[in-house]
Amino acid sequence: MKKEHYLWVATKTGLLGGAIGIFLCLIGMVEIFDKRDVVEGVITLGQFVLLATTTSMGFIASRRTSELLGQNQASLNLISGLVAGLISAILVVLLVVVGNLIDVRAVFLNASPVLYSLLSFNQGLAGIWILPLIGAVTGVVGAAFLLLREDIRGPISRGLLTLILMALFSGLFRVVLINQGSLWQVIAKGLFGQTGLTWIGAILFFGLAVFLSRFWSSKGDEYKARLNQLPKTRQTTLRVVLLALIVLIALGLPQMSGPFIAQVIVIISLYILMGLGLNITLGFAGLLDLGFVAFYAIGAYTVGLLTSYGPFGLQHIPFWVSVPIAVLVAMMFGAFLGLPVLGVRGDYLAIATLGFGEIVRLLAGSDFLAPYFGGPRGIIGIQKPCIGMLEEFLKTDTPRVCNGIELGTPQDIYYVAVASALLIAFVAWRLRESRLGRAWMAIREDEDVAEALGVNLVQTKLLAYMLGAAFAGLGGAIFTVLIGSIFASSMQLLVSINVVALIIVGGMGSIPGVIVGAIALIGLPELLREVSEFRYLIYGVTLIIMMLAKPEGLWPSQATKRELHHAEAENVTAENMV
Amino acid sequence: MTPILTARKVTKRFGGLVAVNNVDFEIADKSIVSIIGPNGAGKTTFFNCITGFSRCDEGEILYQGTPIQRLRPDQIARLGVSRTYQNIRLFADMSALENILVGENMFLQASWIRAVFKTPGVIQEEKMALEEAQRLLNFVGLIRKGDMLARNLPYGEQRRLEIARALATKPKLLLLDEPSAGMNPRESEDLTAFIRRLRDELGITILLIEHHMRVVMGISEYVTVLDYGEKIAEGTPAEIQKNPRVIEAYLGRGAATEGMSTAHERFNKKGG
């Protein structure tokens, strides 16, 4: 095969980068992100996105050059980085030129004058040379990054990652810190600006991340070894102290951070509950359920109907009594779904369950059942949980008075949600280690063989559906009291898809994976409301990259990890033997 | 000796194709019996009928006197019939140990609620199951491989693990579907000895489908020959080797007319 010339490779990379840049501009991302800062007064998020594109193109071009040459050759690496960065930037700038000649706005809504002036640094056509220059420089920087030693590259990239994450969440941190009082207020204003980090904050966070990363890679093992040498009692004390600290932080968090973050954590917990449920049916038993939101809805409606003081309340029992009932009802429906689809496998099962989810949502929101479930207007006036005695129910639309502590705010529900998620994670872990867990996994691997080994398919599969439904039902029950009302329209198919996605991203069949996946796919987008317009774009890109780069998930179960990396391990041993 | 398994007039059709046709079959307790026949003769289908994988259309299968042709595979497994597969079917993404533990599943009593609370009974039961699994791993010589994923084991060890998994169900009748497939002569010899050990030490009745004639003739006490779904011969290995219908089935009609002696040689060559 004829080897390509490295400059040609760099040009191709540059063209790709230009295409990405133009795409980001035309969907309006650059313009909207420009209102946020990474470092105030230095670089906006919009600029950062473009620079990140040219820099990474420089890096990629440089790496491909090294691959072509079979080694690093500094000057050629830098040249190809320069070419790639330059071409990327020129393509983006071409957008300005074209935009000034003809009106492309009729097709591309976001090709606005604001975007053009942004790309030409407010100088009109006279300023179009600036971006290519920056592109070339950043391309070289990206290329040079490859030439750095691994122990320098690692900390720097971690530092940059920390910097950008802190910048994205700066508004959040600022509000939380300002809530803490006078001294904190000064710190908050020093580190976080209105729209991004201050330059002090930027340097501080970057430096801290680099320092910690360096420290960990050089001294980490030493400290670990020293910890292991400590006497057993000391180790246990240390562990207890650490655990106590975590518990303390967890207990204090909602009060410190305010209702918004508490609510986000509650929502993450609810998705963890659903994720753990689906992890049983899909992750353990391999039964793909695309209508999982149905059980969530059933849990929610059960609690709603049993506790609401609104017009649709059937009973007026306390929340705590209604939750176990809701879980049982969800389990019942789990069996109800499971029975007809027992013999259905794979893709067919996915479609059948998809139908089930839609049926539940449509029925709950239908006019036909409106006298019972409120139809599209939903069930309102759900009694908040009360620790203590509830007074008698008097009349419709009047909440019962709670003699004790009423869990009314998201901060209060936080405790219920987090405790439930932890409890269910523990239950799921115990189930996984049991004979039932092994039977589930056997069914996932090969249903026929499992049956021939004496595994009762009907019983085992039904239990998977029922327990999965129970977990989701619990999540729905808590969701009801968080919102205080239920609407069928919030039980969308998208919720089911999110749950499937978070399991896959977290790592199929892995319990910590569910938690990590929920935080990554549900928590981060909730916190980054400002960029909500591109939420699903980022989400989709992340999913694709995840599946290409880390198909086993963020926190894979041990087995999957071994499976997917076995091929690599084999290659390594083979090489070692040579 | 009483038969452990009796099949009477078993027929299985797939649409117009009669895969197993009117087969009468009997296997004596604690014996080693082979089913042989050309490809597509219905051997594996017959196995599937016995283990409940597919329901036979006509006829009756009695296991220790009770009819099992209407039972589910897991019920048949509980009665003491276990099997291995022609193309190994392990739980690929589970460890070797877990594979065996699944086989023990039916002897474990713990309900899911007790498993969640991890009652002393459950702990005791799991401990015993684990010991038994280790013992079985040891029995098939895989004691150091317990934590390896089944998919990562070499071929020969996968075969042995599959047998260990089948043994975990404490079978009285073990069906082996081409256990020596893909093995070299030396490995098949080991296998022959191993199968004998299963019968002699554990008292398990063995029914195997086999293509390696050396294995078949070396190990079987009795051989049944199927061709186009029909039983065309049965008898001791020596009788089968001389049976003209068997030779015809294996080598074609020409062989039978061209003279028994030459056909005989070719048959033996094929077996060797």
Task: Report what the structure shows.
With 578 residues, chain A is mainly α. Chain A has 3 domains: 1-147; 153-239, no CATH class; 260-492, no CATH class. Chain A has 24 helices and 4 strands. Chain A has helices spanning 6-26, 29-33, 45-69, 74-101, 113-119, 130-147, 150-168, 170-178, 182-191, 199-229, 232-257, 259-284, 293-307, 319-338, 346-364, 370-373, 410-433, 435-445, 447-452, 457-483, 493-506, 511-527, 535-549, 558-577, and strands at 37-39, 43-44, 386-390, 402-406. In chain A, the strands form 2 sheets. Chain A has a two-stranded antiparallel ribbon. Chain A has a two-stranded antiparallel sheet with strand order 3-4. In chain A, a hairpin with a 3-residue loop joins strand 1 (37-39) and strand 2. In chain A, helix 12 runs antiparallel to helix 20 and helix 21 packs across helix 22 (511-527). Chain A is globular, with a radius of gyration of 28 Å. Chain A starts with 5 loop residues before the first helix and ends with a helix. Mean pLDDT of chain A is 87; it is low at 566-578. Chain B has 272 residues and is α/β, with parallel strands linked by helices. In chain B, helix 10 crosses helix 12 (260-271). In chain B, helix 7 (185-202) links the parallel strand 7 and strand 8 (205-209). Chain B has helices at 43-51, 73-79, 96-104, 112-117, 120-139, 155-167, 185-202, 213-219, 237-242, 244-251, 253-257, 260-271; strands spanning 3-14, 17-28, 32-36, 58-63, 66-67, 81-83, 173-177, 205-209, 222-227, 230-235. The A-B interface holds A 427, 430-431, 433-436, 438-439, 441-442, 445-446, 448-457, 463, 467, 559-560, 562-563, 566 and B 51-53, 72-74, 76-78, 82-83, 85, 89, 91-95, 98, 101-103, 105-106, 108, 110, 112, 115-118, 122, 126, 129, 149, 151-152, 165-166, 168-169.
